[in-house]
## 1
Amino acid sequence: MKLRGAHVLLTGASKGIGRCLVDDLAAAGATVALVARSAELIEPLADRVGGSAHPTDLADSAQVAGLIERVEQAGGPVDVLINNAGIENHALIDQLDEAVIEQTTAINFTTPQRLCRQVLPGMIERGRGHIVNVSSSAGVFPVPGLSTYCATKAGLSQFTACLRADLAGTGVGTTLVRLGPVDTAMWDRLMDANTTMRRVSERLETLKISVSVPPEKVSGDIVRAIGSGKRHVMHPKRIVPVYMLGEANRRSTEVLLTGVQPRA
């Protein structure tokens, strides 16, 4: 998917990986529609890159309804949708407030599906488009204290695999991003709040199995994946074999159903 001249909707655009993506997408020639809850954070960013700001609480179903239509009315058809927004929680399930469970599930899992549902009719009609869903290694590894977060990321990964199969032959591509530790405020909060997770992370770093990745690196890889049609972005590279073990059943099913060997 060529990014020069493309209209990209990016959720979670105010911080971390999303903020890096704003600059990288604009540098690639795309017009970026920034979506995040805080207007104060995304409006100056949008002005700087010549994009548009769409303050939205992605946990609020009423605000999510019609979001794609509003963005397209302001800036034309959406060519690329990047579901980057995500939130973490860190407690045993019996200690989580139900409102937190609902918010986490909405932002990490339900809203990406709803935005795909809204954007796909236009993409399919035009015969082109790309969808990026940002998942996590937590969708593969069961982490104590992160049951809801892990479940939503596992669901997003499986949803993307099914979406890829549904879209075969339409001209619309997908990229699934699976991430371990990334140097962002979200990861810092998780380390501060979850003692078990911090011990696991320190152990993996000692064994040189998992290392944190700069958000700039992730952003650059996502932009290149869109441009080349690459279906996966995975970090850290040292645990890619584990990711691929989990992907094996999806790939074998795809081959059985279509007879076509999937690309990387």
Note: DSSP finds ten helices and seven strands in the chain.
## 2
Amino acid sequence: MKYPTLLDRFLVYVKENTRSDEHSTTTPSTQNQVEFAQNILLPEMERIGLQNVHYLPNGFAVGTLPANDPSLTRKIGFIAHMDTADFNAEGVNPQIIENYDGNPIALGTSGYELNPKDFPQLANYHGQTLITTDGTTLLGSDDKSGIAEIMTAIEYLVQNPDIKHCEIRVGFGPDEEIGVGADKFDVEDFDVDFAYTMDGGPLGELQYETFSAAAAKIDFLGRNVHPGSAKDQMINAFQLAIDFHNALPEADRPEKTDGYEGFFHLMNMEGSVDTASTTYIIRDFEEEDFQARKQLMLDIADKMNEAFDTPRIIVNLHDQYYNMKKIIEKDMTPINIAKEVMENLGIKPLIEPVRGGTDGSKISFMGIPTPNIFAGGENMHGRFEFVSLQTMEKAVDVILGIVAYT
């Protein structure tokens, strides 16, 4: 179905810089997100007919659409995040490509292009309307597509009261991209039986398995002496870091894994001969494998430290989120409903693991099962990001089907 306000709404959203900041100590992490919620989302939520619209200290903008059919007793939530990833988000200038013909798309005058040779998934969008970047910023489809889809669905329901639906709660939150947005999610305030994050990628994605995730910071304590007289005296902290990294399984890296394969991902390395540090993210799906990866890092450090009188490799680990499958598989109702709705709409459900996490990962463990549904974005988090208007329209169709499900 076509929704006249969907594209314009999306374009308004993406032009607002809401990039989050992993170094911030505030919630939300950037004032831009607060202003986006308070100046754009909250007034629009009230205008389209949501009730009990409010902004919480945790940075979530929340509202309710009461049920209009007493026989539909479920309470269902839809969640999307406001922030965008760690890429230029200032001056977003979207391009609209109507009736895409399959040829390369020049991204403004940046010299970059979306070329089917590099991005073969473009072949899936022949004849559709694509929204792209101009090559200088990201687009922000992750997750402003989700926000626009939820808003559009609510607006449509209010304008078409003959469509009977259950109670709906919507929530637009901060800081998902830096992994802390849902840490302070208010389950009691949201008060639904289950929810969905509209935060997936291409058409049909329906996901309830995510990585379990941890972060590691490893400090390497060296001893710097003049290299001319360094034999048996110098301890090069950088070399310790290299040796530690080389002790990890060589093939267990993001660029060499897919499907259910986990990995260690070296994110940063800095320092000097005297002291150095590295940061990693650790990912896996199965609990046993996840714990084994963390233990391997500790074991490597212990073995290396045996060569020294004092520990020189210090590993600090902390868990970030867990595979929400452990919660959702106890009651597959939200998955079964979404799957049936998609099939009724002629959409093939793609039930595959998320090689990442969503706010739903944390919210599920807080007590609200929250799987993930496609929002349409492709090549997210960079200049090659794009989204299909037709896929966004189908995401709205799915929301409408879920809330009217009997």
Note: The two ends are 21 Å apart (CA to CA).
